[in-house]
Write a structure and sequence with these properties.
The chain is an alpha+beta fold. Helices cover 40% and strands 17% of the residues. It has an 8-stranded mixed beta sheet with strand order 1-4-2-3-7-6-8-5, sandwiched between helices. The longest helix has 24 residues.
């Protein structure tokens, strides 16, 4: 059923002007068992409660949630992004949401600048909203051509790469940037015809992996071996150097059928990111960002499991930028249509 432009405009503005909970945290970025964690944890908790009071936020007891992290670091060696997310999500459990299982969409990216030593001024922005609101926003964005376009070619981070490897790094980057977050890489789908293209595309794409079903209790080592084998084959087959020389990002789909298993999304990413860093990346490099979300399967008859797509650095933020621009573009179009 097609909505009238005025109704659609009202819906869009309501979603745009109701961002959920926004938390800004200042101070060093922390992880569990980090050297500064005990010193700053109370400061983090106080800032979270200040944001909760400001936005009059009440933790939903059962509602599915979408959570986004934007880290800005000028620390010498900030914790890995999957360790950062684990720490802050654990701190948010209780005042922001009641149970980790409620988080069914999670994305994160980190911006690293040169270290300033003792004058470090790292910060973090967290956006929490109901998943239903986020999905409604995505559904509206799909109507804008801007959403289908690509912006902001990611950085290669030459300062992290030995100058003797620059040529190799650029070739690897050019391979990675062919893989972007597509309009069908979303938690739910409304186009039944997509499955005939996407399922075959993912099956044969060298930078898209199916790691099989999530492990049941006691099967974690088998799951790790599956990831290790897939990633080591990738490097040997498709990259011109034994390790990837640019930062990477990951897009991870968890089939809805797996959501009742024991692992939360952040714990799934600890396993995947740890293996990806060990098997894929040069020791100086890092995982720049990731998305993980519970998704409807395009083809429910397939037996595919956890799907992981390798992305170039900066793609998560580029995707979010496309959403912001699509919202503005669609709003302008609806205003012109209504008035």
């Amino acid at each position: 059923m097609m909505l009238a432009p005025k109704i659609k405009l009202l819906q869009l503005r309501k979603l745009k002007n109701s961002p959920g909970l926004i938390i800004k945290l200042d101070g060093p970025l922390l992880s569990k068992r980090g050297t500064q964690t005990k010193l700053y944890t109370n400061h983090v908790i106080n800032q979270i409660h200040h944001a909760i009071d400001r936005f009059k936020w009440l933790a939903p007891p059962r509602t599915r949630m979408a959570v986004s992290f934007r880290f800005f670091s000028d620390q010498q060696n900030p914790p890995e992004i999957h360790r950062l997310n684990k720490y802050y999500l654990d701190i948010m459990k209780g005042p922001v949401f009641k149970d980790d299982r409620q988080v069914q969409y999670l994305d994160a990216s980190i911006w690293r600048s040169d270290s300033k030593g003792e004058d470090s001024s790292s910060s973090l922005y967290i956006n929490v909203r109901r998943l239903s609101e986020y999905l409604h926003l995505i559904d509206l964005c799909k109507e804008s051509d801007v959403f289908k376009e690509s912006y902001n070619n990611p950085n290669i981070y030459y300062h992290l790469i030995d100058k003797h490897h620059w040529d190799n790094a650029e070739e690897q980057y050019n391979l990675l940037r062919c893989n972007r977050i597509m309009p069908y890489d979303v938690p739910r789908h409304k186009n039944p015809f997509l499955k005939y293209f996407v399922c075959d595309f993912n099956k044969w794409h060298p930078l898209v992996f199916d790691f099989g079903p999530l492990p049941n209790r006691g099967q974690s080592e088998i799951f790790k071996k599956t990831i290790e084998s897939s990633l080591s084959k990738l490097v040997s087959s498709h990259f011109n150097y034994k390790k990837i020389l640019v930062p990477i990002e990951l897009d991870v789909q968890v089939p809805k059928s797996s959501i009742n298993l024991a692992k939360d999304l952040d714990n799934i990413m600890i396993t995947i990111c740890s293996e990806a860093k060990k098997q894929l990346l040069h020791p100086k490099l890092f995982i720049n960002g990731y998305r993980i979300y519970v998704a409807d399967r395009l083809d429910p008859d397939t037996k595919s499991g956890l799907r992981v797509k390798l992305l170039p650095p900066g793609e998560i933020e580029s995707y979010n930028d496309r959403i912001r621009k699509a919202i503005d573009s669609l709003e302008d179009a609806l205003i012109a249509e209504c008035y």
